[in-house]
Amino acid sequence: MKTRENYNDIYLFITVAETGSFTQAANRLDIAQSNVSRAVSALEERLGVRLLVRTTRKIALTQAGEMLYLRAKNAFERIDNSLNLIDNWRETPSGVVRITAAQYVIDKALLPKLVGFPERYPDIRIELLSENRFINIIDEHFDAGVRLGSDIADGMIALKLDDEMQMATVASPDYLAQHGIPKTPQDLAGHSCIAYQLQTGGIYAWEFQDDKANTYRHKPQGQWVFSDDYLAITAALNGWGMACVPLNMVQEYLKNNRLIRVLSEYNKSLPALYLYYPHRNTTPAFRAVLEWLKTGSGE
Q1: Hey, do 7-84 and 167-262 end up sharing a CATH topology, with the first three levels equal?
Q2: Structure pTM?
């Protein structure tokens, strides 16, 4: 395999060609004149052609030197332009930021915090992709994901998005009129409870706690199983059973009495939600998103 050329020597040659002098090239580059001369001579020896005609009064390009100068100069200019684009990209963030989260997290925790972001950073495209399963954000090329604090893997950096998640046990008025209102978590055994299937395939067990810190877990055994809280809420609205979902997802339904909350004194809160990502070597676009989520303005 051919050895890669020493591009420093080519750059020194270009500078000599532009200035017409080893001395002036050395002055421009702030290096010794002897270093410039040796580098160009070494380049000629490796290429097996003479690039410069040296006289006591001036330096001129040979035909081969003229060809190399023009093509190499254009190549270096393209590299400089690319580096300038990187500088601009760093100073004015642009690109794609991909975040995976459950749909209700996108609705309740991310979108409200990102209001105004598109106007401030019009060159950043944010992909908020709804996903209920636990995925490897590195393998699936996401910049970040959102999980409960208790579910974040070791080695991840985490940004808290909100406080503990309040849960609510709810049912429609028609369902409660027909089946009665549970007074304690143990009463749920006699009710049709809508199940939520976890990413692992198991069923989420509803957690309750009394005023003496006694805990009770109820695993729904009802007819309906979903892997999305919105579908569980729809089922509850239809009177198909009771659901245990994040409180902020059903507040409007509670206000207009389409759903009734029960066992509120027993519902436990879940750990807070965190945005997590694998390392601190992040893109400028993702850093802009992080700062916005931290401050609400990116300032």
Answers
A1: no
A2: 0.60
